[in-house]
Specification:
The complex is a heterodimer of chains A (about 90) and B (about 220). Chain A has about 90 residues and is mainly alpha-helical. Chain A is built from two helices and no strands. Chain A has a single domain, classed as F1FO ATP Synthase, CATH 1.20.20.10. In chain B, about 70% of the residues lie in helices and about 5% in strands. Classes of the chains: A mainly alpha (about 90), B mainly alpha (about 220).
Chain lengths: ~90, ~220
């Protein structure tokens, strides 16, 4: 196996692992946010506008970790800084 | 297949300055937005019952209400900044659905510039409203030990703003282009509709977060 192959295998495995673990974390977090927002909406339907706005903002904050993982995975796959090291 | 993730093709050069496709597209979006706003301005002045005037009125009232709800009081300057950010980002996200156009916000440089505007607007607004010492004092609260934490939080939230917008728009466009390459004509259509929704939603989130950040700098020290 050349160095290039090792780097390619390591990058692809790391990208897959990054995306998988990142998606799990963001999914669990978003499910909690959604459940709490549903609870709040059921208790106080009058506050729907404010709750929905806060819900979207917090969903975006939680989701950004998954987006960071996606960007890292894409960097590993398409803009890998170590790809040229193996020669 | 047109896979573009981090690169940005240079169209032509103006002297030493390379002009990329993103710059041309964002300029086009700005020109279209300016023309639309000019048409609305004329409609408001000449014929207030025209539908363009109604759209303009609804937009401005919505932005003022958003700022008032988040900051706690009216602030026309902040509403102007937030409105410009929202309209520009929404236009940039939506223009990616036009054939042959790459969304402006799918480039890290563009989103970093937008986040940089918010990063600079926070201390400017804070110093303008609270005075130099009144604003800088909040970095030392509740304890001078918190100074590095405040600085790290300002930097990391700027990074998060730019990467969140970039990641969302770029990944959506990537999924659509992969589906076009794999399946062809009608299959990517629902995803493109989803992209329209996500584009507007991300512009809204960027706007709300910048209002929250700038609003926190304006009202700093008031609650204590």
């Amino acid at each position: 196996m050349t160095d290039q192959t090792v780097i390619a295998i390591a990058s692809i495995s790391a990208a897959a692992l990054t995306m998988a673990l990142g998606a799990i974390g963001a999914a669990l977090g978003e499910s909690r946010v959604g459940a709490a927002a549903m609870d709040a909406l059921a208790r106080q339907p009058d506050e729907a506008a404010s709750i929905t706005r806060t819900l979207f903002v917090s969903l975006a904050m939680v989701e950004s970790t998954a987006i960071f993982c996606l960007v890292i995975a894409l960097i590993l796959l398409f803009a890998n800084p170590f790809a040229s090291l193996g020669g | 297949m047109n896979l573009r993730i981090f690169n940005d093709p240079v169209l032509f050069r103006l002297g030493p300055l390379p002009v990329t496709e993103t710059m041309v597209t964002s300029l086009g979006v700005s020109v279209l937005l300016l023309l639309a706003v000019l048409a609305m301005r004329i409609a408001v002045a000449r014929n207030p019952r025209h539908w363009l005037a109604t759209v303009a009125l609804l937009t401005v009232e919505w932005l003022d209400g958003l700022v008032k709800e988040i900051v706690g009081r009216e602030n026309p300057t902040l509403a102007t900044l937030a409105g410009s950010l929202f309209l520009f980002i929404a236009g940039c996200n939506v223009c990616g659905q036009l054939p042959g156009t790459h969304p402006v916000t799918a480039s890290v440089a563009a989103t970093s510039a937008l986040a940089g505007i918010v990063f600079l607007a926070v201390p400017i607004a804070g110093i303008y409203t609270r005075g130099m010492w009144g604003y800088l004092k909040h970095y030392l609260r509740p304890n001078p030990l918190f100074l590095p934490l405040h600085l790290i939080s300002e930097l990391s939230r700027t990074l998060a703003l730019s990467v969140r917008l970039f990641g969302n728009v770029m990944s959506g466009h990537l999924v659509v282009s992969l589906l076009v390459a794999l399946a062809g004509f009608l299959v990517p259509t629902p995803l493109m509709a989803l992209e329209l929704l996500i584009g507007i939603l991300q512009a809204y989130i960027f706007t709300v977060l910048s209002i929250v950040y700038v609003g926190a700098a304006i009202t700093v020290g008031e609650e204590t």
